[in-house]
Amino acid sequence: MSLLSKFATVGGATLVSRIFGFGREMMMASALGVGPVADAFNLAFRFPNLFRRLFAEGAFNAAFIPLFARSLEEEGEAGARRFASEVYSTLFAVLVALTVVAMIFMPFLVKTIIAPGLAVCVDDPAAGGDVLSCAARYDLTVTLSRIMFPYLACMSLMAMVSGILNAFRRFFAAAAAPTLLNFVLIGVLVWCQYAGADKATIGFLMSWGVLFAGFAQLAMVVVAMRMAGFGVALRRPRWTKGLKRLLVLAGPAALIGGITQINLFVGQAVASFKPGAVSILQYADRPYQLPLGMVGIAIGVVLLPELARALKAGHLREAQHTQNRSLEFALFLTLPAAVALFIIPEPIIRVIYERGAFDPTATPAVAAVLGIFALGLPAFVMIKVFSPGYFAREDTRTPMYVTLFSAGVNIVLSLALFPLLAEQGIAWATTIAGWLNAGLLFAGLYRKGLWEVDRQLVKRSTLTLLCSFVMGAALIGAMLELDGWLRPDSPLATQILAIGILVASAMAIYFALALATGAADRRLLFAVLKRRRPAPPAAGPDEGSA
After folding, report:
1. How far from chain centre, in Å, is Cα 73?
2. Burial letters 339-357, b for 16+ CB under 10 A, else e
3. CB 535 within 8 A of CB 541
4. Fewer C-beta neighbours within 10 Å, C or N terminus of the chain?
5. Long-range CB contacts (< 8 A, 24+ apart) of 533-542?
6. What would the pLDDT profile of 429-444 be if each residue is shown by its tens digit?
7. Residues 357-411: pLDDT tens digits?
């Protein structure tokens, strides 16, 4: 299976998950809108979901796969099974203890980490209607956090099993498992709508749905692992050399691989000081997660095993080729997506969310944040491309320092810009920190001679950028022509048709330009379409070291 085919397998499964996630978020916005219950659910879910993004979407694999592959190669399947059982048993014990402690001290965690803004919240005597008091918002956030926290344990265990599947080149099950969460929550929201449940009840039932989905996702990958002919045993935890090496690598890898989610978590914690800001950030996060998930996660999952395999075999030229083609592929898909999301965020947000409890006055706020996030989309994906260049060589110290520095910049910028620009300030901080992180990661690889930029990458990346700008200009012209169809007072069907025309025409223009100018690899594209693998580059052992 070619590198592009592997990207397509993981990216396709992730795309399906993101599409259903889109549907889930649309239904949630309609049911809860931008309000205290939505804020409480998003704050409570962000903490365990942060660990899902940290571990399940590549970071744990960054530490586990090289060590597991080494055990498989040097000690055979019995040695790999022993190593995996050691890790699984220790991870299980730690997660159970962590869950118990966290649920006991959840009020403290909410006050200090999850939602510090609720600790200084002051009720507004002028507020009426169904506005929850500060105390009620705090209690609701604590309760929902306790319900959903065990989801963290399920996702961490799922990440390890997914790492085993990925090491055996079984990518689909791990990529498809997150779809179960969306199926469950969509089912909960459908039932709540049918039953006429109030917002607080919806929040509670969605939280229990998250917990149920966590166990279902873990079961799915465990079954897939056993179908692959591999299994792990639950034993008494023991401190071993392999486990120690894994912990040395896993901590920095999780920090590095999840920098985007760490930045968003920090942003939501700061946003908790303003009612509604947390929900605005969450609703804006979903649309750009579609291209980020499809491309970034696919690259993060597939690239590391390919790089590690090439480096262990001494195929340095193949490793360099893989890195360059991965970056080329990432830019080819994310640059036009970033341009489009930056130009038309408001019509997109209006069509996706503006119904039910989602007030039209919230649309401009969510759209503005989405436009800012879009500017950082290429950087967020490039982090997924650059990080495996370090992980495959078992170097986590350098990127850890880079990540800590960029996270610090994000915190400082969030605190400085939030009083001035509210949630838009947090979005700017996240985007700037993402570009800083990507730039420093690349600079480190280039300076150490671990990344040689080839002429093909420079040429195609430049052409991709130009094609994206031309597409953006055409998109602006098309928006002016369809202005009457895109107005808020136009029928929903008309707005959907207008956005469909915009997206279809933009894609047609971009891909036509890419094929005409050579920004896209026509040979590779046609080979994939014909299901024929193109001839690989020369990949024999090279002189020197990586």
Report:
1. 31
2. bbbbbbbbbbbbbbbbeeb
3. no
4. N
5. 533/1, 533/2, 533/5, 534/2, 536/318, 537/317, 537/318, 537/321, 538/317, 539/310, 539/315, 539/317, 539/318, 539/321, 540/315, 540/317, 541/313, 541/314, 541/315, 541/316, 542/314, 542/315, 542/316, 542/317
6. 999 999 999 999 999 9
7. 888 888 999 999 999 999 999 998 888 888 777 777 767 778 878 888 988 898 8
Alpha carbon distances (Å) from 322 to 311, 378, 533: 11, 18, 15
- Residue pair 363/353 in contact (Cβ under 8 Å)? The answer is yes
User: What 3-state class would DSSP assign to 461?
Assistant: helix
CA-CA distances (angstroms) from residue 456 to 298, 301, 460, 463?
22, 24, 6, 11
Cα–chain center distance at 249: 21
What are the two backbone dihedrals, phi and then psi, of residue 289, each rounded to the nearest 5 degrees? -70, -20
Q: Is 138 exposed, middle or buried (0-12, 13-18, 19+ CB in 10 A)?
A: buried
For residue 158 the two structure tokens come to: 């799922």
Judge contact between 392 and 304, C-beta under 8 A.
yes
SS (H, E, C) 241-287: HHHHHHHHHHHHHHHHHCHHHHHHHHHHHHHCCCCCHHHHHHHHHHH
Phi then psi dihedrals of residue 170, to 5 deg: -105, 90
Ranges of the chain whose pLDDT falls below 50: 1, 56, 126-129, 527-529, 531-546
Give me the sign of the Cα torsion angle 248, 542, 532, 334: positive
What's the number of CA atoms in the CB half-sphere (13 Å) around residue 262? 23
Residue-level length of the chain:
546
Distance CA 200, CA 132 (A): 10
Candidates 81, 426, 403, 409; CA nearest to 268 is 426
Give the whole-angstrom CA distance, residue 320 versus residue 91.
34
